[in-house]
């Protein structure tokens, strides 16, 4: 069950007071399934629905409209599956690297770290309603990296000396695997007949 008031309060805390948010989040025990359904799913629906509307109904282009339902569906599925894949792949990489940096991190806590960090990106997904504004998502992406960096010590319990190395190596792995995953999802969708431009 989604608690809208809690969801809004947590989003505000993450966005406005990330350091305080991580102190609170670091002490919380979560049920992975409940967390994915009550926090991740509602936020992932924002870019997914906005992508369908933007690319499927509104379209883009300066002189002519380029839009189709199949393109909108392609983009919506890519946004939805890509978001969940991104959370699990990123969490898996960060979880597996923990031992290298002399710390222990459960997969559930890694999911928590990644998902809360992705909050600005998912919220900025609303810009996909007007595809020409989707570039604004880059600003949200930079802020997401900042939130992830701040959360590294409270969640992973890594030492301050190893924090930056752990973060950079995790980031390199996450970006590489995410690009590959997005490419593969796109290929599957195209082979299923969902066209793109």
TrEMBL record:
The chain crosses the membrane at residues 36-57, 77-98, 110-129, 135-155, 167-195. Keywords: Membrane, Transmembrane, Transmembrane helix. The keyword Transmembrane applies. Pfam families: Yip1. InterPro entries: Yip1_dom. GO terms for cellular component: membrane. This is Yip1 domain-containing protein.
């Amino acid at each position: 069950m989604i608690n809208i008031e809690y969801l809004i309060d947590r989003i505000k805390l993450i966005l406005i007071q990330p350091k305080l948010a991580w102190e609170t989040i670091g002490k919380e025990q979560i049920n992975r399934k409940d967390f994915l359904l009550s926090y991740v799913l509602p936020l992932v629906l924002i870019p997914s629905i906005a992508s369908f509307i933007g690319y499927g109904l509104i379209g883009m282009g300066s002189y002519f409209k380029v839009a189709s339902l199949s393109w909108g569906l392609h983009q919506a599925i890519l946004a939805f599956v890509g978001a969940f894949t991104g959370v699990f792949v990123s969490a898996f990489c960060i979880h597996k690297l923990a031992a290298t940096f002399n710390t222990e991190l459960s997969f559930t806590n890694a999911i928590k770290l990644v998902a809360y960090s992705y909050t600005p990106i998912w919220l900025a997904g609303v810009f996909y309603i007007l595809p020409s504004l989707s570039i604004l998502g880059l600003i949200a992406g930079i802020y997401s990296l900042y939130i992830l960096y701040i959360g590294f010590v409270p969640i992973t319990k890594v030492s301050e000396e190893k924090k930056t190395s752990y973060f950079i190596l995790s980031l390199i792995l996450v970006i590489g695997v995410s690009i590959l995953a997005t490419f593969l999802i796109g290929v599957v969708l195209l082979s299923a007949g969902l066209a793109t431009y």
